Amino acid sequence: MTGAFIAIDWGTTNRRIYLIVQGRVVRSERDDTGALAMAGAGYHEAIAAIRAEYGDLPVLMAGMVGSSLGWSDAGYVGLPAAIPELAGGLHRIDPRTAIVPGLCIDNRDRTDVMRGEEVQLLGAVAKGLVPRDAWLCQPGTHCKWAEVSDGRITNFITAMSGELFALLRQSGVLAHHLTGPVADNDAFAHGVAEGAGRDLAASLFSVRSLGVLGKLPDGDASSYASGILIGSDVACRLRKIGAAPVHILADAELGGLYRRAVLMLGGKATLVDSHAAFVAGITAIWDMSQ
Amino acid sequence: MTGAFIAIDWGTTNRRIYLIVQGRVVRSERDDTGALAMAGAGYHEAIAAIRAEYGDLPVLMAGMVGSSLGWSDAGYVGLPAAIPELAGGLHRIDPRTAIVPGLCIDNRDRTDVMRGEEVQLLGAVAKGLVPRDAWLCQPGTHCKWAEVSDGRITNFITAMSGELFALLRQSGVLAHHLTGPVADNDAFAHGVAEGAGRDLAASLFSVRSLGVLGKLPDGDASSYASGILIGSDVACRLRKIGAAPVHILADAELGGLYRRAVLMLGGKATLVDSHAAFVAGITAIWDMSQ
């Protein structure tokens, strides 16, 4: 573990800053100055302010900061990919400031992209939090499912389940039903069973019909709708994954919902510390790029 | 065909007023004073204004005007249902002003509701625009698929495909890709094939990845995304419908897109004049209620 550096997990809506010394986090902070809030400007000043606060150290970033909507397009690396490919593909703003590239699949029959999640996924592998041959799941706005073979990401797929949920809560016919919190309860399990039919646009309308017919209290509607979206996502993925264990990188709440759905639909699942995985991943990239 | 009356197809966002004399439309007008714009008030005054304009005649309404968000809740009739059940279940505001009830499925394992579409569906049957045993499809914000047996609706299912498309265009990560019009072109067909995999939340993300990787011009993205949503809806339905013909009630544009998807995915489809179907349905209900 070489020296000290500042790592920034700079996403669309949030960023988390880490001061990492000899592979250990000695300070960390999260705020809502995501790439959207930056609106494409002021990155040099923001980095200067962070260095003034954390020390005049090299900075290594990952996430939407490296997209066309962020600071500077860090490009994508193809599959299979592991830490060496990310370290070898760093996008350097200047000799002491760099952004980790994303990953892409760009075949004739299928495309997909990720940006930011690759550090966490490969960090979990590097730190031994998951086996070197495994399926990983990273729930969120855009849920990523990645296949790791011999320690390298060989395949992945993105389902925008979290974003669909957010859009449905925001406006439209279901919005006024979906004001409550999501809980791992009977309504969630009912939603998972409904979603497993892989008829998402019809299943979602049942939130409305059950509500109108007085069979789903609004307090349960968010859990039921979340169950539909997660159940549909998991059912699609288990067709490929089968009974191999799914390693879920997420906080306990969202990770727990995905775990429940995987178990309900006949799969196996374990939770992994996603925070530790990011730190391991960005440190491994840093070490290899020195 | 008994006398003259005013029919109003009063939906969520629009209303269409018809003056029907001896079963023939002698005047018709459409505006955007839907139930949302009414905000639950001023219905008595609105009807008085229509009578001042069209004549002091009985008024028969259908659609969201009869929901809890409209003028007055007209309730739901269970299945199987045909014109007599709707005519027998009219919700009377006063002796000369009534609202057609909706239809519902309220079983232990499945619920669904419709309000407004039933008039058009059963009007198509009453006028002989479709066979008395048929599958009908009514695309729109909430696409309705109804099974008609011996002239009665015995089953239906709602897919909120149109609403999902509207939400995705409104905000979120796909919105800035989806600014163009939808056309029945190669991008639409590509979307239908993708959507047929019934993995909707993942297929929709391909709008983003194809765009980011420069393989889908923004001008084609709306057609591709619409193809995914319609293809997914049609693929789910054809599992039940098989090779029986689907009778599509819609304008030529949206109806044509559904027809293309049904044909692409191995089904049969014909287009039906939805405007004539509504007039036939509301007139049949009117006649039977006299």
Note down, in words, how this protein is organized.
- By secondary structure, chain A is of the alpha/beta class.
- The first copy, chain A, has two domains: 4-129 and 274-289, 2-Layer Sandwich (Nucleotidyltransferase, domain 5), CATH 3.30.420.300; 159-272, Nucleotidyltransferase, domain 5, CATH 3.30.420.310.
- Helix content of chain A is 41%, strand content 26%.
- Chain A has helices at residues 35-38, 43-54, 83-88, 117-126, 161-170, 186-195, 200-212, 218-241, 252-264, 274-289; strands spanning 4-10, 15-21, 24-31, 59-62, 76-77, 91-94, 97-99, 102-106, 111-114, 134-138, 143-149, 152-159, 245-249, 268-272.
- In chain A, the strands form three sheets. A six-stranded mixed beta sheet of chain A has the order 3-2-1-4-7-6, sandwiched between helices.
- In chain A, helix 9 links the parallel strand 13 (245-249) and strand 14.
- In chain A, helix 4 packs across helix 10 (274-289), helix 6 (186-195) crosses helix 8 (218-241) and helix 6 packs across helix 9 (252-264).
- The longest helix of chain A is centred in the C-terminal third of the chain and has 24 residues, at 218-241.
- The mean pLDDT of chain A is 96.
- Chain A binds chain B through residues 68, 76, 104-106, 110-113, 142-143, 157-161, 163-164, 166-168, 170-173, 198-202, 204-206, 208-210, 212-213, 215, 229, 232-233, 236, and chain B through 68, 76, 104-106, 110-113, 142-143, 157-161, 163-164, 166-168, 170-173, 198-202, 204-206, 208-210, 212-213, 215, 229, 232-233, 236.
